[in-house]
Amino acid sequence: MFLSCGTNKEAIYLMGIQDTAVIDSVFTNPLTIHPGDQLSISLSSLNSEADAIINQSNSGGGASNSIVGNAGTNVIGYYVNENGSINMPRLGSIYVEGKTHEQLKDTLQKLLDPYTKNPIVNVRLLNYQITVLGEVTRPGQIIITTPQSDILQVIGLAGDITPFGRRDNVLLVRKSGSTRIVKRLNLTDPNLFRNPYFQLQPGDFLFVEPNKAKKNQTSLTYQIWPLVTGSLSFLVVIFATFVR
Length: 244
Prior knowledge:
single chain; alpha+beta; wza like fold; Outer membrane lipoprotein wza fold like; 3 domains; three-stranded antiparallel beta sheet; 24% helix
């Protein structure tokens, strides 16, 4: 019983935050494009023929721009290769690494202007996925459909942390080039919004560690202890019987 005890403070998000508090230091940097991104690039103009050529990759029609997914099916969109470039009809190879979606949109509208009339370009990331494992209700890969996401939104999409998960020490692993950045985030901290890692990026990995109660339940000592105490009780009863 004592091994399983814990405080309810461990289960409270943003503990101690004041009502009507205004947080003015939230890190909401726009996403930038990296190799491995799969981009949906759509064109709308007065030239329907040009629109169809550009938009064909968004429906799986552009074989040169698609990659093969885990199930062997083509993934639609324009793939950013290891050189940080995409290949587009008429425009050829375009270097896009490090650009925001808005910057790429402006660049493409200028490049497509000679081929179309009043081009309107939209850019969206298709493979925005974050992996959540550990003590959450629905562990696995989560596909994000919004331009930005934060750790609280992703934890919510994973069904929240179970009663056996630690909210004060969530592990974040982020790929940065050929290296990995490892950070610990405290979801009970009211200053979480000011943490530069509050906003997540595509490819991030989250792991929610089990708390002491869960570790005790899965430990060998915890499983054997009832047998030991039961055996001792039985021996005491037998000893008391013979002594009488």
